[in-house]
Amino acid sequence: MAVFWCTEALPLAVTALLPALLFLFGVMQSKDVCMQYLKDTNLLFVGGLMVAVAVEHWNLHKRIALRVLLFVGVRPTQLAEADGKPPPKMEKQSEGQVVVTFLNASAEAARRKEAAERKKMCKGMTLCVCYAASIGGTATLTGTGPNLVLKGQMNQLFPQNEDVINFASWFGFAFPNMILMLTLAWLWLQFVFMGFNLRKTWGCGSVKTEKEVAAYEVIREQHRQLGPMSFGELSVLGLFVLLVVLWFTRDPGFIAGWATDVFNSKAEYVTDATVAVFVAVLLFVLPSKPPRLCSWRSQGIDTAPHHTGPTPALLTWKVVQKKLPWNIVLLLGGGFALAKGSEESGLSKWMGDQMTPLQTIPPWAIAVILCLLIATFTECTSNVATATLFLPVLASMAQSIGMNPLYVMVPCTLSASFAFMLPVATPPNAIVFSYGYIKVSDMAKTGIVMNVIGILCITLAINSWGKAMFQLDTFPSWANATGV
User: Fold this and answer.
1) How far apart are CA 6 and CA 12, in angstroms?
2) What is the per-residue pLDDT across 3-39, written as a single tens digit (0 to 9) for each?
3) Cα 37 from chain centroid?
4) CA 169, CA 466: separation in Å to the nearest integer?
5) Nearest to 133 by CA among 440, 454, 417
6) Three-class SS of residue 313?
7) Which positions ≥6 away from 425 have C-beta within 8 Å?
8) How buried is residue 200: exposed, middle or buried, by Cβ count under 10 Å (0-12/13-18/19+)?
9) Which residues pair with 287 in a beta bridge?
10) HSE on the CB side for 118, CA within 13 Å?
11) Is 55 in contact with 240 (CB distance < 8 Å)?
12) How far is CA 258 from CA 63, 121, 265, in A?
């Protein structure tokens, strides 16, 4: 499966189905294998993505993006011509042909220099998009596939872990690391592609040019065309906020969450998946238009007239079926099946035992070495597949040498998302590369420093606030194979 995932000889989702076929050779019973394909983590992923599909379906993401652009402004000043027309040609001067030739050459050189700077800035801006997508996804449990793999593997390999990894705890650890990485990534891309001329880049001490005013007006016009927020947009926004609030307050750790106070239940009864499914179901229940009883208010909220017949819901199954990436659901399930088979057969324990010589190395050095290994490996294969292959082995290794499994599993999960060097490493890279502004060499030269930045940030995070949050100095009782 590792070879097939790396070479993509078969589609990733099809490769994920192989355990259901190959484990019949004495590894696991078919009924036990198939149960791994739709676990709690898969429903957490599906529920979260349904909310994301609703946000996209109602153009809420576009409104937020345009609002951000209007707030930030249109600096730096290197922008394309607003009307698409070439700059005016130099007219002949009476001083003579020599002077005219000199002026034309100077103007042409200036235009070429401006075009080169604009192209260089475009490279930096496009890389900002894909790098921010990869880094930003690490901040939340549902933001990227490897985080969900960690959650599922923890519940499967260590069922007594007391829900140590949940939405709130992961956000508390990963969000500061994301902010630090984004800041350093911005400084690095700024240095490589735009320099640190604040007057030129940010317009400090200068007035806006006609180009900047024109660009700002285009953005404002696009935002105006969206019109006022519709009833559906407001409803989706409210449900999104509700989802995040319920995730954070379910089991925040430092106080009792609503799952305990309201339902007097343990983690196995109410999980983050419960919240995701609850909000996802509401998307199919709540109407997309104001109720008839509130028709007197509809003109101020929703300009579209009421139509006869039942009011459509905020989300339909047809839209979900079209936009939800079902292949990732199978990929997650196949990873859980592979991990379960490795556990049942004793393969994970055997591979972990082979790494016992690492116990002579300081824990922080072990984490750095493994992060480098995974950050390199994930450039050539799927992020989810990388996390799926390595996390069970790392868990067994940690048990063998008496280390808290989270000390290596958490940083390596983050490293699986740090695919910055190659266009094929992650979908955001491929999308950005397809626009044609950057070459593979541009991405590789910039990305190798990004990988180093990521590993340094992870090392700082896991050995500072991460150590305090997850008590990484101790070997927890839930990590003991004997359950003692």
Assistant:
1) 9
2) 887 777 888 889 889 998 988 888 888 888 888 888 8
3) 22
4) 10
5) 417
6) strand
7) 378, 379, 380, 419
8) middle
9) 313
10) 11
11) yes
12) 32, 48, 9
Residue of 471, 420, 267 lying closest to 258 (CA atoms): 267
User: For the chain, what is the radius of gyration of the CA atoms?
Assistant: 26
Q: Are 314 and 283 in contact (CB under 8 A)?
A: yes
Specify the residue for token string 């490493």. Answer: 425
Q: Tell me if 8 is assigned to some domain.
A: no
Instruction: Encode pLDDT of 449-459 as tens digits.
Output: 999 999 999 99
What whole-number distance in Å separates Cα of residue 99 and Cα of residue 93? Answer: 7
Distance of CA 267 to the CA centre of its chain: 26
Q: What angle do helix axes 440-462 and 363-377 make, rounded to 10 degrees?
A: 150
| 8 A C-beta contact, residue 123 and residue 442 | yes
Question: For residue 86, is the peptide bond before it cis, meaning its omega torsion is within 30 degrees of 0?
Answer: no
CA 69-427-273 angle, to 5 degrees, is 85
Contact 389, 342 (CB under 8 A): no
Distance CA 74, CA 202 (A): 9
Domain span at 100: 39-86+94-479
Residues 10 and 12: their CA atoms lie apart, in Å, by: 6
Report the mean per-residue pLDDT for the chain.
Answer: 80
Amino acid at 93: Q
Please enumerate in sequence order all residues whose Cβ is within 8 A of that of 208, keeping only pairs 6 or more positions apart, or say none: 74, 216
Cβ pair 166, 142 in contact under 8 A: no
Q: How far apart are CA 375 and CA 413, in angstroms?
A: 10
41-56 burial, b if ≥16 CB within 10 A, otherwise e? bbbbbbbbbbbebbbe
* Token reading at 304: 């579209």
Q: Decide: 153 and 392 in contact? Cβ < 8 Å.
A: yes
Q: Is residue 11 part of a domain?
A: no
Number of structural domains, the chain? 1
The number of helices, as runs of H, and strands, as runs of E, in the chain is 24, 0
Q: Would you state the structure tokens that stand for residue 293, as one six-digit string?
A: 């009883």
With tokens 């449900």, the residue in question is: 239
pTM of the predicted protein model: 0.70
Which one, of 103, 149, 427, lies nearest residue 111 by Cα? 103
Q: Name, in order, each residue with C-beta under 8 angstroms of 18's C-beta and a sequence gap of 6 or more.
A: 1, 4, 334
Domain-located, residue 14 = no
User: Is the distance from CB of 371 to CB of 412 less than 8 angstroms?
Assistant: yes
Looking at the domain assignment, is residue 3 inside a domain?
Answer: no
Summarised one tens digit per residue, pLDDT across range 272-310 is: 888 999 999 999 999 988 877 654 444 444 544 445 567
What is the Cα–Cα distance from 208 to 212, expressed in whole angstroms? 6
